[in-house]
Design brief:
By secondary structure, the chain is an alpha+beta fold. The protein is built from 13 helices and 13 strands. The strands form six sheets. The chain has a three-stranded antiparallel beta sheet with strand order 5-4-13, with no helix packed on it. It starts with a strand and ends with a helix.
Length: 323
């Protein structure tokens, strides 16, 4: 596999461990309770050979583990490990982005309920210190103790980023499942907006960068802004839809810091401007603002108590008989 020398970043390491879009679809379904090979095959829509390969990779990377279906049986199910369960924040935020912007797969749940407050909700990210909502504009970056450069593998794309009409409907897994797409978006967080600057920072080929920017623009994630007339030159800026991917990217970085971190420490430190502290994030219910836990999230909408009809009391037939 080809490699590139890039600035150290825990997001890069996380994407290496998570693999392509197929692997990330498997992880998402695992959080929604899927454990058996046949269930993954039905819900993820990939070839059996592809599914078997991705499951092996996720087991190798410590995200899934195999367990016997029953004592003494050769057949095994796939379950999330503690490292895999650590992706809960990332999966919740990715799901919320997809629902908010209408970018969900056919058959995917479009409503989740926080059972603690019994309300349908969209997950959100808050600062652990001041409990303010985490946004791109409120965060700044500094080099961490693990800063530097490292060689990382560059995965080949598994499908064309643009179809004949120049468009593909993205989900978050289409962004994070293709390394170059994810890295192009990440340059926006560091204030790199011009084509030449993005190319130099990533060491990416011109045709690949052009392709990824065109796909991101056609899906409303970035927009072009003219900054020079002769010849016409453009900068690329995240739209509101693109900015909303920021929380998900942060969650991947924090996961990578924890589970794939350098012994020296994180490569990048994020400071939260409103409170001045180093950012420690938590994902909360968008309705009650309390931290989300895996066991307190259910698929589907909550049933309002007022909408539940109480069973009628049985009539007392003895009184009628005595009349």
């Amino acid at each position: 596999m080809a490699t590139k020398t890039l600035p150290r970043n825990s997001v890069h390491r996380a994407l290496n461990a998570l693999g392509d879009r197929w692997s990330q679809l498997i992880i998402r379904e695992a959080f929604f309770g899927t454990t058996q090979f046949g269930e993954f095959y039905t819900k993820c829509g990939m070839a059996r050979s592809t599914l078997a390969n991705r499951l092996r990779g996720l087991v190798k990377n410590g995200i899934l583990e195999q367990r016997p279906l029953k004592d003494g049986m050769a057949r095994q199910d796939y379950h999330l490990t503690p490292r895999g369960k650590g992706l809960f924040d990332s999966v919740m935020l990715a799901w919320g982005w997809g629902v908010k912007w209408g970018m969900v797969s056919p058959g995917m749940a479009t409503a989740l309920t926080h059972t603690s407050c019994n309300q349908a909700m969209i997950p959100d990210m808050q600062c652990e210190k001041c409990r303010a909502r985490v946004t791109l504009g409120d965060c700044r970056y500094a080099e961490g103790p693990g800063a530097g450069h490292e060689r990382v593998p560059v995965q080949r794309m598994h499908r064309k980023r643009n179809d004949a009409e120049g468009e593909i409907n993205f989900e978050v897994v289409d962004i994070t499942g293709d390394r170059w797409t994810a890295l192009v978006i990440s340059t926006q967080y560091f204030g790199i907006h011009r084509f030449d600057g993005i190319q130099a920072y990533l060491g990416i080929a011109t045709n690949i960068l052009t392709d990824r920017l065109r796909a991101l623009e056609s899906n409303g994630i970035v927009e072009r802004r003219l900054y020079d007339l002769v010849p016409p030159r453009y900068e690329y800026w995240l739209t509101k839809k693109g900015i909303d991917t920021y929380q998900h990217s942060l969650s991947l970085m924090f996961w990578g810091d924890k589970w794939l971190g350098d012994p020296k420490g994180p490569p990048v430190v994020v400071k939260h401007k409103p409170c001045g502290h180093r950012l420690g994030s938590m994902v909360v219910c968008g309705a009650c603002k309390e931290p989300l836990k895996l066991e307190a999230v259910a698929v589907g909408r909550a049933v309002r108590q007022s909408a539940v009809r109480k069973p009628k009391r049985p009539r007392d037939t003895r009184k009628q008989a005595s009349r």
